[in-house]
Amino acid sequence: MVLIEEIDSNNPNPSETHPKAATRIFQLLGHVGEMWSIGVSLNAGNLPDAERIQEFAKGVILPAYFDAVEMAKSAEATNLIHDLGDPETFFADIAHAKLGHWDQLQTVGAKEWAELKDANEQILPLVYKFQAENKTSI
Q1: Residues contacting 17, CB < 8 A, separation 6+
Q2: What is the DSSP string of 80-126?
Q3: Is 104 within 8 Å of 96 (Cβ atoms)?
Q4: Residue range 97-115: average pLDDT?
Q5: For residue 11, which phi and psi values (nearest 5 degrees)?
Q6: For residue range 24-65, what is the model confidence (pLDDT) as tens digits?
Q7: Is 10 helix (H, G, I), strand (E, B) or coil?
Q8: How far is C-alpha 133 from the chain's CA centre?
Q9: In this structure, are residues 69 and 84 in contact, taking their beta carbons and an 8 Å threshold?
Q10: Is 6 exposed, middle or buried (0-12, 13-18, 19+ CB in 10 A)?
Q11: Which member of 17, 39, 50, 116 has the greatest number of CB atoms within 10 A?
């Protein structure tokens, strides 16, 4: 994603062919942030205690965010670093997105995700239809 972003920065029409790396990282970490709840959802079990959820955030989600920032620094992808925003704003945007507070999104990645959300929801059924008709999977 970092390399795509670096190449895209030289394109006169950025994000013409694909979402920004910050948007992909925003969506990825939004999903990763909910992984602790998958077992609960599938098994209709009890939620883990708050301490366990915090441990997951500290051990998995935060390191993933900071790894993305470090990779961007290594590649000198300054646009990506700017687009991700600081950690507080980035993770606040994930919370705003989950709550449907689109008007409160601040980072470039979150805003682009919100812009693409409706289009993606329209495209997804077409992908499933294509898969069914052609007996393929993604």
Answers
A1: none
A2: HHHHH--HHHHHHHHHHHHHT-GGG--SHHHHHHHHHHHHHHHHHHH
A3: yes
A4: 95
A5: -80, 130
A6: 999 999 999 888 777 666 666 677 778 888 898 899 999 999
A7: coil
A8: 30
A9: yes
A10: middle
A11: 116
Nearest to 63 by CA among 34, 32, 100: 32
Rounded distance between C-alpha atoms, residue 12 and residue 26, angstroms:
24
pTM beyond cutoff 0.90: no
How does DSSP classify residue 19? -
Q: What is the pLDDT of residues 59-91, one digit of tens each?
A: 999 999 999 999 999 988 888 999 999 999 999
d(CA 120, CA 134): 21
Q: How big, in percent rounded to 5, are the helix, strand and coil portions of the chain?
A: 75, 0, 25
Write the burial class of residue 94 (CB in 10 Å: 0-12 exposed, 13-18 middle, 19+ buried). Answer: buried
- Classified as helix, coil or strand, 5 is helix
Whether the CB-CB separation of 9 and 77 falls below 8 Å is answered with yes
